[in-house]
Protein 1
Amino acid sequence: MTKTLGGRLAKIAALLISVLLVLTAAFAFVGCETKRPEISIKLSFNGQTYEMEYKLYRNMYPQTVAHYLELIDMGYFDGTVIHDYQSDRMVGGGYVYEGDDVEDDLAAKDYGAATKDENGNVTLENVSVWADENKESAYNTLYGEFSANGFTVENNGLTNSLGSIGTYYYTPIKTTGDAPRVWVQLNSDNSMDTRPYSYNSAKSMFYLYTGSSGTDANYCTFGVLKDSGDQETFQSLLDAIEEYTLETLNGGDEEGTEEFTTEVSMVIEDEYWSEDSYENITFNVPKAQIVIESVRVLKY
């Protein structure tokens, strides 16, 4: 009888330990989010791949980081391209190539299909923009966590540096008069307030900064390259682009006039923009494809 009771007690104790271990693991998983998540971005250009790791600053830009991490987990960015190579940044995350021609085959990726159901309801978990104060009608765009939108970061925010990553949008910036407005949830006290849609219209596009400057008041820089090795990798990509321009496009002639990009006119469609005054946007499209092969979360 004693042995039987002792065996039962031992089994019960083992079961309790197992339950505690499971609960501990569950709580550990829930609490595994960090102030600075990490991601990797793999780009390909001219037969070479370039993979960089980034630190994202959730403690400064919580809604921005949550939005992009959700898109990354969806695999949304895989196969998208750098479609607009500007003087100080390369912009990607919203377009794909449907063929090999960089001018004729550039097409917008269907963001709406990835973020809404068949009834038009937003399916994103991290919603930060609404049509109404009661949060009954959600937008699938992002609250602009930057100073032009009335957002401030304690002890200053990130500044643009080589390779830094930030949000991007092409919506015409109008803040007064007939500019459409939306409701956003302020991070400071969770209260709701209205803001110009222009500043809260980012969807999936992001930029990688190719130089170094101060804070950009109109965009949110929410991450930086993790270490010097990643900076070297990013710089090697920029060097390869420069070499391609010199050797391939200009045949080695240092005084050649061929540029790395070609101008392509695109119409930006935005279901939330209420005016009919949209004009075509001119992209500086790379003459050789820069493909975003993959974006992955390394640490939450």
Note: The chain has four helices and 15 strands.
Protein 2
Amino acid sequence: MRFWISSACAFALAVLAAATLKNEYYFFAGYTVLMFVVLATAWNILGGYAGYVNFGTPAFFGLGAYTAVVVFKATAAPLVVQILAAAVMSGLLGFATGLLTLRLRGIFFAIATIAVTVIMETLFINWRYTGGATGLQLLRPAPVWPFESYITMLFVVMAAMTVAAIAIARYIETSWIGRGLRAIRDSEEAAECSGVSTLKLKVFACAISGALMGAAGAPMPMYLSFIEPASTFNLNYAIGALASPMIGGTAHYLGPVIGAVILSTIQQVVTVTISSELNVLVVGVLLVVFVVAAPEGILGLVKKLFPRKKP
């Protein structure tokens, strides 16, 4: 109950900010921060709970973005329909990727997910309907009432998607699915001997993770009013989605949220004050610091510093 109350309050704050703030930069920056919260939360379902490090975030994110473009260009469907279509397509890609690659482990699985990204980027580079390698310019439709700006509407939509993604991750973590995924992470052989259906759980986690990443990518074309393969399938999405749970902590659903908020906020500040080219450097420095000083992330460090007293 406490989770739903806090989630409702957070979403209400986002709506209140959209109604009161007039400077659109806050919504541009806030949208990016919330998008990385969704990506980090989605990544953690497979990478944190099950222990399968996924570098294929740009493949699912990019497929979601291009699915939204195709749906909008073909039918002029509203944003909600674009997001649902993107989630379905990226979820199917996650399902297929899981069936083909989740028998691999460690570095071999990570390399396979990078290959999926390369394949998806090559596909859209050669598809003229979506602009090919040169990209496609998009015209934003009129904002829906009560929003005065389309960017403000995208910010509120991403806030709603963030709440939904965290709720899904929380349910998975606290259910039998999360217990099975943690058993896979600790010892896959022992989990199989204990009767855990490891392949089904891994494929499920890959499909849900991919669907959330695709949904996060769906509003991006309208956010930028432009889409092209090189930036849409950029590996920086994979780095940000991986680094955020490492910083915040992978054992709890709040870890990716904390890490993404900290990392994305710092990157936005660095972009405005210094240079956008330093974003990757910021990620690298923070990763090194937390891997050395707090390998279990911020939440793990807090638990060590303030342990709960057992009754």
Note: The chain has one domain: 2-305.
